[in-house]
Design goal:
This protein has helices at residues 14-33, 59-73, 76-89, 91-94, 102-105, 107-118, 126-145, 174-182, 197-211, 257-277, 286-306, 342-358, 362-379, 421-438; strands spanning 43-45, 48-50, 147-149, 155-157, 165-167, 187-188, 194-195, 231-235, 240-245. It is mostly helical. It has a single domain (10-438), classed as Glycosyltransferase (Alpha/alpha barrel). Strands 5-8-9 form a three-stranded antiparallel sheet, with no helix packed on it. A hairpin with a 5-residue loop joins strand 6 and strand 7. Helix 10 packs parallel to helix 12 (342-358), helix 11 (286-306) packs across helix 12 (342-358) and helix 12 packs antiparallel against helix 13. The radius of gyration is 20 Å and the shape is globular.
């Protein structure tokens, strides 16, 4: 269980945040000026970012990192870098029909740029705004078109594995659909039918909450409240649910902790978004808010209760070597049995902070907020922040794909000391959130894409 520091205040992280942004600038510059590899950077190998197979889902994190760097520090060179790379290299991702990652790729780039303009942090420019809006509308429609309807009503955005596959990761990519809706867009289907993107986002979130999250209600023998399945499998002939599955976890009946973090953060953020629309001209979302809040609270509680005392999880709660590890102590990246995954901690910490702001139960809200701060303190420590100038990664001890052995390992077979593109990006999102808190400024919310 995480040892939550109930007295920790954001101001106590100020010096570490300043160091973080200084290091972040150097890492972004190093990656941009390196010779590079074929394909988007995914993970570091001996400190150097390299590509990896599967799908190209990390380019937006690379260029989005420069945009976040500008947001946090005002360094205009990074705005120029992020904007130029987004315009020149991201267009194919806008209409990529083969992936579920539009919220990762395009909200991290075009979404952040449009948000900055709407917040008044970059100058208003009509044609630039229209370009970003069109890009995000296209991305949202393509994302929304990857749809599988299920037997009991509703449906989900299917993963790159195919129409049978519902990934936990995709809850964080619902930002794409939400932005598309905010911009007044819809998906046009057969016979010119207009498909509401917000409704599609709500349906996907509802199905994810129902099938990928457990609530201790007797669903199966391993039904523990708050744990998650990485993937749910459906029969596409009749839309019926078949079984849990996983691609990157240890088993369908254990919890891959990055999947847990995607769920935790994704639902927390979507809950904030729906509450921002509640009882407006958009309508009332009581049912969806109830479902999303139940999923968010369950996963927050499970993360806190099942994670080592410093808030950094091992890569899967049921990995075989976990039996040799004392989970009441801080996570040990140098243990000889199982790797930790700091990227899961970076994602979860932001989700916990957001739940601390949006949870309606004041005691739970305080617990989540302080847990988020406690994890942030660990992530900003020397053990996890990459201080070496020749290491291109920012957050150490991040993991990609343990079952496929896509991470560099030491002689004991355990991966450690490396970084991932999403881990670094989400650490920057987390630190931008905290930087805004310290400045007493509004949170950087993805849905703030309209001029207020």
């Amino acid at each position: 269980m995480i040892k939550i520091d109930e007295s920790l205040q954001p101001v106590e992280l100020k010096n570490r945040l300043e160091l973080f942004w200084d290091l972040s600038a150097k890492k972004i510059t190093s990656l941009e000026t390196s010779t590079g590899t074929s394909g988007a950077p995914v993970v570091t190998v001996d400190g150097i970012y390299t590509a990896r197979p599967w799908t190209e889902w990390t380019q937006g994190f690379q260029f989005g990192s420069a945009i976040l760097q500008f947001d946090a520090t005002g360094e205009t060179d990074f705005l120029t870098l992020g904007r130029q790379n987004s315009l020149e290299k991201m267009s194919a991702h806008l209409t990529h029909t083969g992936v579920h990652d539009h919220g990762f790729q395009n909200v991290s780039t075009f979404g952040n740029l449009l948000r900055l303009m709407s917040e008044g942090r970059i100058p208003e420019n009509n044609w630039e705004r229209r370009y970003y809006e069109l890009a995000l509308k296209c991305s949202a429609a393509v994302q929304g078109h990857r749809w599988t309807s299920i037997k009991d009503g509703g449906g989900y955005i299917y993963s790159f594995n195919g129409p049978h596959s519902l990934f936990s990761d995709t809850i964080r990519s619902l930002r794409s659909l939400a932005i598309g809706h905010r911009l007044g867009h819809c998906l046009k289907g057969e016979g010119d039918v207009s498909i509401n993107l917000l409704q599609r986002a709500i349906e996907h979130g509802t199905v994810t909450a129902l099938y990928n999250v457990y609530y201790g209600e007797g669903r199966d023998y391993y039904d523990i409240r708050g744990r998650v399945a990485h993937e749910s499998i459906f029969n596409t002939n009749d839309g019926s649910y078949r079984c849990p599955s996983t691609q990157q976890g240890y088993s369908p009946f254990t919890t891959w902790t990055r999947g847990l973090s995607w769920i935790l953060c994704g639902f927390a953020e979507q809950l904030e978004f729906l509450r921002s629309l509640q009882n407006t001209e958009e309508g009332t979302f009581n049912e969806a808010i109830t479902i999303f809040e139940k999923a968010a609270e369950a996963t927050c509680d499970y993360y806190i209760d099942s994670t080592p005392s410093d808030g950094i999880p091992y890569w899967d709660t049921g990995a075989p070597g976990i039996a040799n590890i004392d989970l009441n102590k801080p996570a040990d990246p140098f243990n000889p049995w199982e790797p930790v995954d700091s990227s899961a901690a970076a994602i979860a910490a932001q989700g916990l902070l957001r739940m601390g702001r949006t949870c309606t139960d004041s005691l739970k809200a305080q617990r989540y907020w302080q847990a988020g701060l406690s994890i942030s303190k660990t992530l900003l420590s020397d053990q996890y922040v990459s201080l070496e100038s020749d290491h291109q990664g920012l957050i150490l001890h991040s993991l990609y794909h343990r079952p496929k052995a896509w991470d560099r390992t030491d002689t004991d077979g355990v991966a450690r000391g490396e970084s991932t593109m999403w881990g670094d990006y989400h650490a920057r999102e987390l630190c931008l959130y905290l930087t805004r808190v310290l400045s007493d400024e509004p949170s950087p919310n993805f849905w703030n894409v309209l001029v207020s």
